[in-house]
Amino acid sequence: MGTDHIRVRVPATSANLGAGFDVFGIALESPADIIEVKKSERIEIEVIGAGREHIPTDPRRNTAGIVASSLEKPVKIIIHRAIPLSSGLGSSAAPAAGVAVALNMMFDLGLSREELVRLAAQGEKAASGVQHADNVAPAICGGFVIVHKDRVISLMPENIGIVAVHPEIVVSTRTARALLPKKMWLGDVSFNTASAASMVVGMMKNDIKLIGESMENRGIEQVRSRLIRGYPQVRKSAIDAGAAGVTISGSGPTMIAVCRMDERENIAQAMIQAFRDNQVKSEAFITTIGKGAEILQKQI
Ligand code: HSE
Predict the structure, then answer these.
(1) pTM for the full model?
(2) 74-84 as b/e: b if 16+ CB within 10 A
(3) Residue of the CA atom closest to atom 4 of ligand 1
(4) Which of 5, 85, 258, 300 could form a disulfide with 51 if both were Cys (CB 3.0 to 4.6 A apart)?
(5) Measuring from each residue's beta carbon to the nearest atom of ligand 1, which residues come in under 6 Å?
(6) Peptide bond into 31 cis (omega under 30)
(7) Distance 22 CA to ligand 1 centre (A)
(8) 251 Cα–ligand 1 center, Å
(9) Tell me, what's the pLDDT at 2?
(10) Which residues are catalytic?
(11) What share of the chain has pLDDT > 90, as a percent?
(12) Helix, strand, coil percent values for the chain (each to nearest 5)
């Protein structure tokens, strides 16, 4: 017997981590959206919180609505937003992931986590035009996640300081993807492969220095950085303040730094100041790698 009303807490996520374009993602301990799902006569969507006017409530155009439609489940979905919109922190992935997890429980679907990730990724396609799972996978599984073919591999590194600084700049994933090169030099591919391999070892060993040094890529960050005013100064300010590494979170414009837990405040201040020096307001999320979607409450 399922339940009629479920609330799921779904974390913000950061994809790519520099090294693993469309492959790596982490769940952040905060911020998080709350996705509420209730049985209903038809699929309905309500959005509560900042930026709600920018989120489509037509189920065919909303990432969460697409998930409910593909399962043919008539439910009311209420999205309580805390993850900033178009930020590179997985704001479109969180509702899709939350609805997939909620419907799996509500209708006793028995879907595996890989199936849930595939389902939620269909919603992501509506937002970015491409079905990438590097936000929905950590949103569902938590920790550091590697998405490879149909497989989702996850690890839970501990005590990794994360500073995510979101500037008041709007970058859509569609735009940031349109900039990407269609082909890459073999030398750049080798470099990116080496970064990805060392990132995985860094995550396995909880090695902040190795993780930070692996947050680099060729061919992607450079072109996307042009969309982020102040990028070189913010990057330098984070490194000068002690960050082990810094990169664009997902498709941006948020920039994410990895550091020791006790260095996060200083690094956040330095990054905010560097954006301010470029006449850009920003907000910092001082966090760490956290768990995935969590069912908070169910009512029969
Ligand atoms: N991997 C995706 C991209 C993440 O970089 O376009 C989007 O948040």
Answers:
(1) 0.94
(2) ebbbbbbbbbb
(3) 250
(4) 85
(5) 15-16, 21-22, 88, 132, 134-135, 173, 176-177, 250-251
(6) yes
(7) 6
(8) 5
(9) 53
(10) 124, 173
(11) 85
(12) 40, 25, 35
